[in-house]
Amino acid sequence: MSDYLPSLSALRAFEAAARHLSMTLAARELNVTPGAVSLQIRDLEAALGVQLFDRKPRALALTVEGADYFTTLRAAFRLVREATAAITARARGAILNVTCTAGFATYWLVPRLGRFETLHPEIDVRISASHRVLDFQRDGIDLAIRHGLGGYEGLVSERLVDDELVPVCIPKLAGELGDHPAPAALAPFTLIHDVYRHDWQLWLEAAGAAGVDAARGPIFMHGNGAYEAMKAGLGFALMRRSFVDTELKEGAVIAPFPIGVASRLAFHLVYPGAALERPAAAAFRRWLLSEAHS
Hints:
By secondary structure, the chain is α/β, with parallel strands linked by helices. The chain folds into 3 domains: 8-90, Arc Repressor Mutant, subunit A, CATH 1.10.10.10; 92-162 and 266-293, D-Maltodextrin-Binding Protein, domain 2, CATH 3.40.190; 165-250, Periplasmic binding protein-like II (D-Maltodextrin-Binding Protein, domain 2), CATH 3.40.190.10. The chain has 11 helices and 10 strands. The strands form 3 sheets. A 5-stranded mixed beta sheet has the order 4-3-5-10-6. Helix 5 links the parallel strand 3 and strand 4. The protein is elongated and about 90 Å long. The N and C termini lie far apart (63 Å).
């Protein structure tokens, strides 16, 4: 009995009758006769071995068992409707699921996304900000943007953003450095680290900044903590130029040193080979590469 599933038509008849508390209204919704709805529900009650309705001369009421069953069944039908809507929209190419890190979404992707929406208003781009390793098929992901060395087994990986890392700060701190500061002037200031904590060491070595302790300063392991701490005036953060390009132009943040350092790590567009068979995924890939190389 635990493996028994009633017929879908009987379940639909019960759900409609329970929702309307009327055989007549349920029949109208399902485009059948009230007698057919009543018969399907009686067959369902017989199969389940429970009474689902109290039938009164001029009223229909759910039993306790019927009310419990209706609550669960209504949720199940809602999930089926949502899943059906999602998969049919996906088949039409209307929904595109993209996953990337929170930092990439905040600093690079979201500020540019309006341009894609103008070009392709028919595509609904859904962004999931996550560092978690995902299964494309199981998690319903079309394209992923990941930070690393590339070369993901079984997947296509295209280098997307690999511009230089530069120290940035708020204008007040930049003013404290004086005119034309040398990188060694960072020594008394706080260096803010993110999960890629060795980047400061690489930058200081490339800049020839002797006497600056690269390990000093707080580490923010998740989200946009390093950037937010920099904006709050805590110290200097290393950022990719493209991530802060708009704010640099507006003067909201300052890059006091012209020196940048390239990292072996970059942001890569990652996807299964078959992903580009979907026109929406192919269009988003073309747009991403165009934005990255412009």
